[in-house]
Write a structure and sequence with these properties.
Blueprint: E1 2-11, E2 17-20, H1 22-32, E3 37-43, E4 48-54, H2 57-70, H3 88-97, E5 100-106, E6 109-110, E7 116-122, E8 128-137
Antiparallel strand pairs: 1-8, 2-7, 3-5, 3-8, 4-7, 5-6
């Protein structure tokens, strides 16, 4: 069985964003040489997320509005976590959107359903953060 590991680094120029990382993960899969197996992709920071959904701008705007209703960024004073930092809302948003995804690898490709794409969700940007790609299989 083969095992492959790579870190992808992102620096988003604003506090929140959704980046389609499907091409980068697909490139990792090609590099791994795995044809049948599993691909794990997870955010290595507690204020970021990896998730699968549709690459549609309206949906991403809906995510942003919905998450902001669930865990509004301001006022910062509403959160016990905030003190030295102002990112309690980012921790909560990550919890809702999830830490990682696992995708089947079939015939050397990520085995997605219709319209599925993989995204990196950033909720406390403006600094370097990494995503782990771990692929195992034959």
């Amino acid at each position: 069985m083969k095992s492959y590991r790579k870190e992808l680094w992102f620096k988003v120029g604003r506090r929140r964003a959704f980046l389609n990382i499907t091409p980068e993960v697909s490139a990792c899969l090609t590099e791994s040489g795995v044809r049948e197996g599993l691909c794990l992709v997870n955010a290595m920071h507690i204020t970021a997320s990896v998730f699968i959904n549709d690459d549609e701008g309206g949906l991403h705007a809906d995510f942003e509005r919905w998450l902001e209703k669930l865990a509004p960024e301001k006022p910062y004073s509403q959160y016990a976590h905030n003190g030295a930092e102002d990112n309690a809302d980012a921790h909560l948003k990550r919890q809702v959107m999830g830490r990682e995804v696992v995708v089947a690898v079939t015939e050397g490709r990520l085995d997605f359903g219709p319209w599925e794409q993989m995204f990196y969700g950033e909720f406390d940007g403006l600094r370097n953060k990494r995503v782990l790609v771990k692929i195992i299989g034959e």
